[in-house]
Each structure stands twice: as structure tokens, then as C-alpha cells.
């Protein structure tokens, strides 16, 4: 094959795109990547990883403020925001370099520029100041990701009104901050800035924060955030913003029509994302777009023959691990690997890295009941867990939801220390179609936080031992 002809071309090198290209090479396909910005995409460069580096810093700040509880004393403890941000950026840079190494190791050429469909089986790679490069392949995978949504009258300016990117590289710590939207991104930034000392107001237009989480988990998070000093207003929308010196004057409206004004140093928009569907040459193709996302079938195929799409550009859940698995499913289907199964969204765990952490997999209790399932529900608080007591991390609990008739684990939901690490146990259980019987017979090591998972299972069947 010439250097511009491939079996598969992936447009976008985020966690969906670069994984798809690697899996294609493992299956003997000649694959190429087209990327206009950074290898690793938003996740590695501006999302999942660098935000966790920032949250690690705010977690340390929280611990330093509570040293006395562990028998330590320190004076004049301060943080250097510039170094906190620099460490986050260095982590992102290192991982992006790691993806570059993986491309070289797997023999995957990377074409820098904007990839655009230029006819059946053809991609034009456009780069400013250079003639377009023409590539050809019978299969194209669009993995272009998504970007932050904005609202009319609330457009980010990079100074007073921030997107998540701006919020990751502050030049100084704002004394006061308004976070608009209480999904994972919103509560993570609210948590980060509150632990560093900002006065934070969290606004959500829906009746409760964390709308995709189980009701009890969201309520527990609400209480925890308010205890930390985060002011929360639900059923509230932003009417207008205006510059007021170096501050932002904001007018809010509650569900009953009442308005209120406040002034903050900065505003963070965290109201969701929309797919990067522009500039891809979709005009004149059969590819359909709905509400800013590309429509695909269970095999990640669009209505245009040979054109596939994965990751955030195809819609929720907007998670890096979902994009990676879609990339594998998509490529294995293309390669004809036997036994390939479509990705089941209910098997995808979700994690939010605020303080306390939140993690879940499967159906919420409300969703299970809405489907007509008769359920058995178990709960176990970390306050009764020995390891949590030893760590001084007793806030939160584990909740399990079972089908009362079959014993199927329908869902698991957690709030507390390191639950983002624990949730994979329940994700594996759901993947293996484990019932309550196998989970109750499983031996959980002592002392561990994971014992709370076991107890939550036992509690659903009236057999809890340590409560």
C-alpha cells in the first residue's frame, strides 16, 4: 500500500481514537490517526487526568488543615497555586508523550491537521499553510470528541467566565466562585476550589444536584458539600451576567420566578458538552446529527457506508473508558472478530472525584422500580467499617440494588473515600452476571473499605453482620 492508503483511518486521537488504532494494528489492519491538536485528546490533556492531579492537591490541602486529628502539628502551611497548576500540566504532557510513544511502537502514522471526509473512503487532512494531504481507507472512525456547551448571554471569555479549560489554569485563586451545573465536572471544580479556600456557590436548574446519580447518593453529596461550606441552589437558572470591575454580577432566577443578585470573582460553566461535528465534511453524506451528536447503531456505524463514530461525539455517557471500549468494539466488528458484543451502557461505571468521591454502575433504585422491577436494597455506612475508621474517612456509604426475584445485581452506588477504586468490583460482578449468592459467598479481605461492599450485599437480604 502507498503511504496514504490504509485499512482504517481514525479521526481524533483521544482515548477512543488512539485505542481504536492500536486494536486495529493488533488485528493486522493498517491504521492511521488524524489529529488536529494533542495526542490523547481532551481526556489526557484537559480532562480526566490533569483534573485529578488538581484534585489530589486540594485533597492534600484538606488533610493539612486537619493534621491535629492524626496527632500532627504544622504551622504556616501554604500552597503555591502556580506549582499546583504546573504539576497538573506536567502530568498531562507526560501522558500525551506516552500516547506518541504508543503510536510509534505500534507503527501507526499520525497526520497532524483537521480531518475531513472528502468522498467515499477518502479523508483530506487540512493544515494551515500547507496543501491538504489526501488519505484513503475503506473504513473511517470519527472520534473527534466534544467541547463544553455554552448558554446565550453566558459565553466564556477566558477571564471572568470560564470553561473547564480556563478553570484548570487559574492565575490566582478566586475569592468567590459560581459554578453553573452540578454534574461531575461542576461538583469536581466546586470541590477543588472550596478545599483551596474559595467561597463557592453551586447552581443547578434541576431539582437536585448530580442528576444521573441515585437519589440517596445525590442527597448525601448535597449534605456533605453544604457541610464543607459550598452554597447550593437547585431549581435555579442564570438570567444574566455582566462585568463589574474584575468581578461578575450575576442575576439568578428560582423556579418560582424570584430573582436574586450576587457578585463573584469568577464563573465556571459546567452545563454539559456538545459533539465536535463541525468541519468533518459530513454535508452531503448520510451521516445524521441529532442534538449535536452523531447517530450510530449498536456497532457504532453511521448511516454512511464505511463511516463509524465512537466516544463523546456520539453522545452520553461522556466517559473516556466508554470511548475506549467503543473503539475496541467498532474495530473488532470491522475486522470480523467472532463473538463481538455491543457495549451495554448499564455496564459502564461512572466516577466523580469530588470530596467525598462518588461511583456507580448499573441502574439506580428509582430507574429499576420505574422499569417495574421488584427490588431488594442494601446499605452499609463507612462509619461502621474498621478501615474507614482507621483512615479517618467515615463519611458515606455503599448501596446495592438487586432484583428480588432473580438475585441479579441491578446496580451499585457509593459515596465516600476511594469509592472510585472500589466500584470496579461491582462492575465485574455485573459483567459476570453474578447473583447475590456468589457475592455473599465471596471472601472480602479485612480490614478494607471493600468489606462495606460485602455488607451492603448482605444487608439487602437481611444478613448484615456488622451493623
Lay out the secondary structure.
Layout: E1 8-11, H1 17-26, E2 31-35, H2 41-46, H3 48-64, H4 81-105, E3 110-112, E4 114-117, E5 122-127, E6 130-136, E7 139-142, E8 146-148, E9 161-162, H5 164-168, E10 176-180, H6 184-196, E11 199-203, H7 215-228, E12 231-233, E13 236-244, E14 247-254, E15 259-264, E16 266-269, E17 273-275, E18 289-290, E19 293-294, E20 307-309, H8 320-335, E21 350-352, E22 357-362, H9 365-370, E23 375-381, H10 386-391, E24 396-403, E25 409-416, H11 419-431, H12 436-441, H13 451-460
Parallel strand pairs: 1-2, 1-7, 2-3, 7-20, 9-16, 10-11, 10-16, 11-12
Antiparallel strand pairs: 4-5, 5-6, 8-17, 13-14, 14-15, 18-19, 21-22, 22-25, 23-24, 24-25
Helix pairs in contact: 1-8, 3-4, 3-6
Oligomer classification: single chain
Which structural class matches the secondary elements?
alpha/beta
Unreliable spans are: none
DSSP summary, beta strand count:
25
Order of strands, widest sheet: 3-2-1-7-20
Number of helices: 13
CATH topology of the largest domain: FAD/NAD(P)-binding domain
Terminal residue distance = 67 Å
- What about the largest sheet? 5 strands, parallel
Q: How many domain modules? A: 3
The assigned CATH architecture of the largest domain is: 3-Layer(bba) Sandwich
CATH C-level category of the largest domain? Alpha Beta
Shape: globular
Q: For this structure, what is the CATH homologous superfamily of the largest domain? A: FAD/NAD(P)-binding domain
Percent of residues in helices comes to 25-40%
Q: What is the percentage of strand-forming residues?
A: 25-35%
Taking Cα atoms only, what radius of gyration do you get, to the nearest Å?
24 Å
